[in-house]
Amino acid sequence: MEYHKVVQRIAACGLDCGRCADYQKGEIKELSERLLNLLTGYDRLVKIKSQANPAFEGYDKFKEVLNVFAGASCGGCRSENVKCPVDCHAKTCHKEKRVDFCFQCNEYPCSKQFEGKLRERWMEKNNRMREIGVMDFYKEQSKLPRY
After folding, report:
1. Which of 15, 51, 63, 107 falls 20 to 30 Å from 4 in CA-CA distance?
2. Taking a C-beta distance cutoff of 8 angstroms, is the pair 28, 67 a contact?
């Protein structure tokens, strides 16, 4: 993948927007849409299946969650359509500082970013990018669970 495409997927703070459940072009959305499509018409079997396996009694809730995943609409932290619930100063700061990632800023690590565990995670990701480079960081992250 090219650097500019990686920049669109990895937020300035180091989180991988591309693997987020809310990302509009993400794998979770695509797989959820595919699964919903594959399950078309399955509702009629749920009553029969639930007699033998009570887990199917929750099928409607499962389908509701799957629909939420399939409806993901966030464009990522660098877009105008951000749905991320994390209040992150890096979303705007990186533009002001004219850097792609926090670690590239001459003020990194600043006191504006996060507290506690979120700060540790932010520094861990940015330090790793600085150590191995953005492209290798992206490859490394793609092999790990997002959450």
Report:
1. 107
2. no
